[in-house]
Amino acid sequence: MAQIGAAHGLKGDVRLRSFTEDPQAFAQYGPLETEDRTRRLEIESMRPAKDAFIVRFRGVADRDAADVLRDMKLYVDRNRLPAVEEEEFYHTDLVGLVAVTTTGDLFGDVVGIHNYGAGDIIELKIAGSGETVMLSFDQKTFPAVDIAGGRIVVDPPAEIIAKDDGDESAPDAG
């Protein structure tokens, strides 16, 4: 949903980066939870800033308390999110899908979705070898997503296929 960045000022504010389609939507779903679910954070105030928001959480009153929150990833329970249209999905829906090639052959499983700032990346565990690869989540590489069918279609780059076939000279795409 979001990730806390550096402290901002002396009164407990933090920079917060949103990963929701509507960048301000994270504030609509109630308290945010840390990844380990040990802490719930309620937004007391927020304002936009360049590429982020400046947020103050209830009970975080100084820079030291804000520094403790740095780099925490924040989540909400799935049941608090709005329903999606038939052709839409949340990233969490992709984890666990079986990945098949455009010819229907088993490729592996989706084990994670990442975003390091340049777009979404899908992490796949390759069937048989157990190795993982990270591929850009775009229409060319992933031409079809079938949530109801439990699969995602992947058209992996040639160097990934060559590496999977045992060509050790192929470059690493991840």
How would you describe this structure in keywords?
174 residues; mainly beta; SH3 type barrels; 3 helices; 13 strands; elongated
Detailed description of the structure:
There is one protein chain. The protein has 174 residues and is mainly beta. It has two domains: 2-79, Beta Barrel (Elongation Factor Tu (Ef-tu), domain 3); 91-164, Roll (SH3 type barrels). Helix content is 10%, strand content 39%. It is built from three helices and 13 strands, in the order E-E-E-E-E-E-H-E-H-E-E-E-E-E-E-H. The protein has helices at residues 63-69, 91-94, 158-164, and strands spanning 2-8, 13-18, 32-34, 40-41, 43-49, 52-57, 73-75, 98-101, 106-115, 120-126, 132-136, 144-146, 151-154. The strands form two sheets. It has a seven-stranded antiparallel β-sheet with strand order 4-3-7-1-2-6-5. Strands 11-10-9-8-13-12 form a six-stranded mixed β-sheet. A hairpin with a 4-residue loop joins strand 9 (106-115) and strand 10 (120-126). The longest helix has 7 residues, at 63-69. The chain is elongated. 19% of the residues are buried. Residues 167-174 have low confidence and may be disordered.
Radius of gyration: 19 Å
Mean pLDDT: 88
Spans with pLDDT under 50 lasting ≥5 residues? 167-174
The largest sheet has its strands arranged as: 4-3-7-1-2-6-5
Major sheet: 7 strands, antiparallel
Order of helices and strands: EEEEEEHEHEEEEEEH
State the distance separating the first and last CA atoms. Answer: 24 Å
Q: Using the alpha-carbon principal axes, give the shape.
A: elongated
Quick one: CATH superfamily of the largest domain?
RimM
Tally of structural domains: 2
